[in-house]
Amino acid sequence: MQKNDxxxxxxxxxxxxxxxxxxxxxxxxxxxxxxxxxxxxSLTKDPLSLGIIxxxxxxxxxxxxLFAGHIVDQKEKKGLLIKCLLAFSVISFGxxxxxxxxxxxxxxxxxxxxxxxxxxxxxxxxxAFLGPTIFSLFALIVPKKIYPNAxxxxxxxxxxxxxxxxxxxxxxxNWIGVHWSLxxxxxxxxxxxxxxxxxxxxxxxxxxxxxxxxxSLKEGIxxxxxxxxxxxxxxxxxxxxxxGGAVALLPIFAQDILHVGSEGFGILRAxxxxxxxxxxxxxxxxxxxxxxxxxxxxxxxxFGICIIVFGLSSWFWISVVALFLSGVTDGISMxxxxxxxxxxxxxxxxxxxASVNSMFVGSSNELGAFESGLTAxxxxxxxxxxxxxxxxxxxxxxxxxxxxxxxxxxLRKDIEEHEKE
Length: 421
Fold this sequence. Notes:
The protein is mostly helical. The chain has helices at 13-44, 47-74, 77-98, 109-141, 147-175, 177-196, 213-226, 228-243, 250-257, 261-285, 292-312, 316-344, 350-379, 381-402, 404-407, 412-419.
């Protein structure tokens, strides 16, 4: 095996442009979600309303996911991504208008709330296509032999967006208000579009163009189910995120439990992503490929413990540290999962595999938000977070038992094989 080059992927010009585009997109989406969380809870003071935000997005995202994967595998990736970003920009501008006092003057709180839910619902349709398209375009920009390094940088940039988006959202709500915060979201969506224009069109590698949609979907599902390492990684992360979605309840912790206001909310919301970002930059120098399966299980187990500590804490800085460490463990998990998916997925099936992944893992963030909001309504906020952390620990233990191939996974052999190509 060649000596590890932590900057291998950054030596490709289009990959750097891809990173700028991805950062701007993730920044805009993350910031928008946090601003909307704050606005909705301010309108309702109801924990369940935070869960409904996630539910409104996840329903269309899950419903269209498999079909979207088929379309992504059949179409040119850059053109499809441009359409996704244009649609997101329209929704961002709509939310900007909904929070403009002159525009919604005379509207009831319920009318504004339901309009926000409707635009979030439309955003779920975009989500169904966005993830698989980015995943597929990524694989066409860099050679296979540097997928692990590229996955690390791509995940790091994703986390930078997740760090800075929520952090700026928390502070900008305090500085310039919800309305102008959403104007910033719209601006970054335009930056993502402009960046994408500098990436060239890529070939369609699927040899079965025009294949029957149901046959195509069946093939994708069968591949994921038969590849136990991918199935185990997806299942583990889905359930862990589903029950560990404490971040959906952060507006309640910031306003009603820790009493730290919008600035404290920004710090709490950014803490997990700061931890994840730190571990991702570190992993560019110290890859996680050796004993990857055990590292994945240990990381998500640690994530569950951090969520429990956060739920029980009534001290702001203990809560911040717990969320920071949850980000460290989640970052390890993300890097390993993305590397597994990139190395184990054939080029012609990337859209469908990414769609299955987004159905279960990506959408579990929103389902986790709904689960957290619902359990907080039923059993109280603190109890709901502790319950979620405990379920995460149980999930990891069961996955380690029922997926031995995942437990024993070592990615070094796969990487050596790609380096020979």
